[in-house]
Amino acid sequence: EHITFKARGAPGQGCSVFENSTQAGYQGPPPHIHLDQDEDFYVLEGEFEFTAADRTLRCAPGAFVRVPKGVVHTFENVGEGVGRLLVVVSPAGGFEAFVEEVGEPTREKSPPAPPSGPPDAEMVERVTTVASKHGIEILPPPSEH
Fold it and tell me: What residues are paired with 59 via a beta bridge?
């Protein structure tokens, strides 16, 4: 993912807005829950499939998806090219801190290629640990339930 913050609220107040760009085939973040933040997605470009709770929606540009805090969700770029989402998290704070801790700053303008294989166990453990510090619960793969 390539995340560009557009506006940032004070932690615990207001909201933060960012653009999330992904390449075709990007399978999205693992299913996860924001314990303290609502997350809203507006599709700017491309085609995405969102799964929230037990519902899956295929969305084209102009679609809006709201995921209240406490709801398990994920998304995938199912289009043929770069997909872009405008994302709003409220209240501000947790997600942004998570991105700053696990992300890597870049000057690139386009999103990276999707991973060619599964993430290594060390990376999964690191992301899961950092996420929990910032009010995000990453769920284990279905085979580990």
Answer: 48
